[in-house]
Specification:
This protein is mostly helical. It has one domain. It has two helices and no strands. The longest helix is centred in the C-terminal third of the chain and has 34 residues. The radius of gyration is 16 Å and the shape is elongated. The model has no long low-confidence stretch (mean pLDDT about 95).
Length: about 70
Amino acid sequence: MIAKKYEALVFALVMGAFMSGFMSLVITYINLGLVDNFREMWLGAYWKAFVIAFPTILVVIPQVRKVVGVLVVK
């Protein structure tokens, strides 16, 4: 198992992989449809999105937690 101190890093990795994969799949489909090289086009978009998503999530996590803390009644 992974140590608790790496929780934010693992969260960002998993969230970034899932969201960039799903969103790049949807956007690629919307823009191109099911073309012959759809998989290659999607995978190209996926890794580019992940490279942006992963560090962005790492930076944004603390701010999002603060906003959620204000919005959610304890």
